[in-house]
Amino acid sequence: GTGDGVELWTAPGIGENEIEPEFEEDVAQLVENGIITPADGQIAAQDFMVLEVNVTGLEGIMHEAVLQDDDLDVDDFLDRENDHLITEEFFAAQNLSYRNNPDDRLIDFSIRTQETNASVQERIQPNEAVTPLGIDIQQATTGVVAGADDSGNLDNYYIPIRLDPGTDLSVEELWLPSVPDDMTASEAVNDPSVDVLYTSAEAPLTTPQEFDSTFILDTSDARQADIPANGRMENGFVDSVQDWDFVRGEAFVEGADPILVVPQEDGIEISGTTTVAAGTNLTINLATTPAEDPPFFKQNPTVFPEYVENESMNRWTITEDFAEFDVGTSFELTIRRTGSAGQLTYFTTPAGEDPAPVPGSVGEVREVQEFTFEDQPSGGQSVIVQSFQAPYDSIIEIQDSSGNVLGTSDVLPSNDSAQSRIAIPLDEAITENQEVTAVAMVAGGQEYPNGERTAEIMVEELDEAEFSVSNLDPQTAELGEPPTRATSKARRTSPSPSTVRKSTPRA
């Protein structure tokens, strides 16, 4: 009986990639295809939470549970050719305490997902009873999938649970806010110094709420004095995933504050993030507002957000054409799960309770109107763009010959006249003369088609300061004859061009 604990994954609960695994190979393939992905701190309403428990030693307990339950069949449990589902056996074993008599006790194990104290405190008034909510995993799961090692012994368990808002959750315990932060619910129940109320009830699952998921292996009651135990079989273990947030399904559009402006061009990328699981079908629609003529309606019914490692949200991208529409044409962008009527966009500040479309407008062609970046001496800490003007709020990146970003400007607001002498700090000082390229892009990421300028940066060197002082009487502190030689710091630029070369676009 050993284990590596519990891991938390998420997967689509709606659309063509809605999961229904029956074999461990199904789970592995879904992970490889980017459909089951790490939860990374949050799971959206209507998506699946997938708990993965890595532990050995439970198979014998499940076998005993099957023998004691007339509704379960030993042959079905041992024969997993048709599927790897062991739902009834898993929970029967979890509820089993002893083998043949109360003195012949078995290892206790349990897995639970319960609301955190901090989450509860967010929705109560001072001095009111705290009501942590626990998800009844046995009732909520679509089926426990078992995985085996090379010898055929069960060592992995996958438990998918669809998190639908409004689902009744069990209120496992009630305790007062005076319970110390370092005390668990079970410790508080057993501590006579803590005033704890205990009850059993139901409450709906709502957003936002914070949970933690814990796997407990308790061997204390199953130890036998004449049988040596070692490792985790001796002491058992408790393993929890980091606290995770249950949030509403929501989608965001980059560069849309306060309005999404797209240039009057074809092949324009629009991108953003979403809380829903990677692999979920998204339908992204763009439609002109009622007064626009001619109108347009652009539908993208098969957009699948992709997982971004160590980020709480996933990323989506679409490409659209706007060259044929007049500058100033207004439209609205909406995002929803395909096959679902509910929108994922809540475009108000702050985000409201009701969905709202993202406002958009067709803007001018992306083209810098003025951009001068000349050869220059530099101390290596920054470079100077001599002038810049563009129709959109912009940034300028400084890149080396390999395309590595050396530094980035602040956002440069669009203006009726050019800005001059824009100092761009470098992330790390350059120490050698080199050619760099200034790349202008719309704030939000899209480069201007004519937005590259290349210049030579000549790093200034500092000569060592040399001083020579003579005829100084240290006793009287009086100066005698003037010093014979005195030199100070001098700047030297190498090489020294005879002319200033104008910047040229990089090929």
Would you write up a description of this structure?
- By secondary structure, this protein is mainly beta.
- The protein has 3 domains: 3-247, no CATH class; 251-363, Immunoglobulin-like (Sandwich); 370-461, Immunoglobulin-like (Sandwich), CATH 2.60.40.
- It contains 8 helices and 36 strands.
- Strands 3, 5, 6, 9, 12, 13, 14 and 15 form an 8-stranded mixed beta sheet that branches.
- The radius of gyration is 33 Å and the shape is elongated.
Attribute tags:
mainly beta, Immunoglobulin-like, 3 domains, 8-stranded mixed β-sheet, 6-stranded mixed β-sheet, 8 helices, 10% helix, elongated, disordered C terminus
The total tally of domains equals 3
Helix content range: under 10%
Q: Based on Cα principal axes, name the global outline.
A: elongated
Mean pLDDT equals: 79
**Poorly predicted spans:** 172-177, 219-237, 474-507
What distance separates the N and C termini? 63 Å
Beta-strand portion reads 35-45%
The secondary structure category is: mainly beta
| Total beta strands | 36
The DSSP helix count reads: 8
Radius of gyration: 33 Å
List the helices and strands and how they pair.
Elements: E1 3-11, H1 24-32, E2 37-38, E3 42-44, E4 48-55, H2 59-68, H3 74-78, H4 87-94, E5 108-115, H5 117-121, E6 133-135, H6 137-140, E7 145-148, E8 154-162, E9 168-171, E10 174-175, H7 185-189, E11 196-197, E12 201-204, E13 209-218, H8 232-235, E14 237-240, E15 244-247, E16 251-253, E17 260-263, E18 268-274, E19 282-288, E20 297-303, E21 314-320, E22 330-337, E23 358-363, E24 370-372, E25 376-378, E26 382-389, E27 394-399, E28 405-408, E29 419-425, E30 434-442, E31 447-462, E32 467-468, E33 472-473, E34 478-479, E35 485-486, E36 491-493
Parallel strand pairs: 3-15, 17-23, 25-31
Antiparallel strand pairs: 1-2, 1-4, 4-8, 5-6, 5-13, 6-9, 7-8, 9-12, 10-11, 13-14, 13-15, 16-18, 18-21, 19-20, 19-22, 22-23, 24-26, 26-29, 27-28, 27-30, 30-31, 31-36, 32-35, 33-34
Helix pairs in contact: 2-4
